[in-house]
Design goal:
This protein has 14 helices and seven strands. By secondary structure, it is of the alpha/beta class. The protein is globular and about 60 Å long. The N terminus is likely disordered. Bound molecules: S-adenosylmethionine. S-adenosylmethionine binds next to α3. It holds the Pfam family Methyltransf_5. It is an enzyme of class 2 (transferase). It comes from Coprococcus eutactus.
């Protein structure tokens, strides 16, 4: 007799499952729209989703017209791309880039299902530092958006190692198929280099103390390989901080050191520098570019490049001050709090 296999229905464990993989409703936003809305209204980002930032500010500035050609240099979940595509009203074309081989496939499928196929949208898995090649193929752009950094899907996925909040491999690569993971980088880095990385990338005040602990672990072959081990190393380094202040100090150092490692393994400053350098030639005369940054190092580079471009007459106009998301947007999406937007218009 054939044995009957009793298959249990996938169960949403409790009303608030904590594990990323168990949040299956949040992973399927089209099907569970009510759950998604509830999660967002509580100021959280559903697992497997990313809430686009400064959408109205970007669209107000870009003034996209049907028939134009645009580039989203950082596709992510495709939220901005989708809103920009809506403005094309079926006429024109968009290119969208991302280095992430995992999320790009899901986003491509999601956008195709929403009616944005290859006739109107070309998605490429490439680094935006190759904007010159993309612009050559496309014939230049009327509008460009770059929303730097990482998406919520990347941060929330423990396998990617972007946060100390979940245990996982200390990876932090936007493209895990290329280059060295953060754990590999930590094994071979020198003390001086590590101190410089923490200080220059994230202004870490305890850079020396944290680097000392990591070097000690390397010497004893007790390598820092997971996000939790990285947090432990930071806790050990900050043991001298008075107990009442320690928890907060460890949290802040974790945020800064993870950011510093991410910037390092993805060469984020070098990549942004190349992008900003090639940007004017990728824009058509009168073309517009908006860039969202998430920390002072990035914003400084953008500000400097736009200012130099305006001085050289390459840009006819650049934003005088940074544009910030509204208080309402920050309340709805806490990840928007550190966002700064700048824009520029290519000279005619
Ligand atoms: C903040 S998310 C973008 C979210 C997107 N605007 C949306 O609305 O869904 C940043 C994305 O840019 C990608 N990215 C970061 N640096 C990149 C680079 N140098 N080249 C291409 N993509 C990059 C990341 O993999 C991530 O998916």
């Amino acid at each position: 007799m054939e044995e009957k296999i009793h298959k249990r229905r996938v169960h949403y464990s409790g009303t608030h499952p904590k594990r990323f993989e168990e949040k299956y409703k949040e992973h399927d936003p089209e099907k569970y729209a009510d759950t998604i809305e509830k999660v967002i209204s509580k100021g959280s980002t559903p697992a497997g989703m990313h809430i686009s930032i400064c959408v109205n500010e970007i669209l107000d500035f870009l003034q996209i017209q049907p028939g134009q050609q645009g580039l989203d240099a950082t596709l992510g979940y495709g939220g901005h791309t989708r809103r920009m595509l809506e403005k094309l009203q079926g006429k024109g074309h968009m290119y969208a880039l991302d280095v992430d081989p995992i999320e790009i496939v899901k986003t491509k499928q999601r956008l195709a299902e929403a009616g944005y196929g290859e006739d109107i949208l070309t998605i490429k898995q490439t680094n935006f530092r190759n904007i010159d090649q993309v612009a050559e193929e496309a014939g230049g752009f009327d509008f460009i958006l770059a929303d730097l950094g990482v998406s919520s899907m990347q941060i929330d996925n423990p396998d990617r190692g972007f946060t100390y909040k979940f245990d996982g491999p200390l990876d932090l690569r936007l493209d895990p198929e290329k280059g060295e993971s953060a754990a590999e980088r930590l094994r071979e880095v020198s003390y001086e280099e590590l101190v410089g990385m923490f200080q220059e990338n994230s202004d870490e005040p305890y850079a020396e103390e944290i680097a000392t602990v990591i070097m000690k672990r390397n010497r004893t072959k007790n390598y820092v390989e997971t996000t939790t081990q990285m947090k432990d190393a930071i806790e050990e380094a900050l043991a001298f901080v008075p107990e009442k202040d320690r928890k907060e100090a460890v949290k802040k150092s974790c945020q800064r050191c993870f950011q510093a490692l991410r910037i390092d393994v993805n060469s984020e400053f070098e990549v942004l520098y190349d992008f900003l350098d090639k940007l004017p030639d990728a824009l058509r005369p009168g073309g517009k570019v908006a860039i969202l940054t998430f920390h002072s190092g990035e914003d400084r580079l953008v500000k400097r490049a736009f200012k130099a471009g305006a001085k050289a007459g390459v840009y006819s106009e650049v934003s005088k001050d940074v544009i910030r998301p509204s208080a309402e947007e920050c309340a709805r999406n806490p990840r928007a709090r550190s966002t700064k937007m700048r824009w520029a218009v290519k000279a005619e």
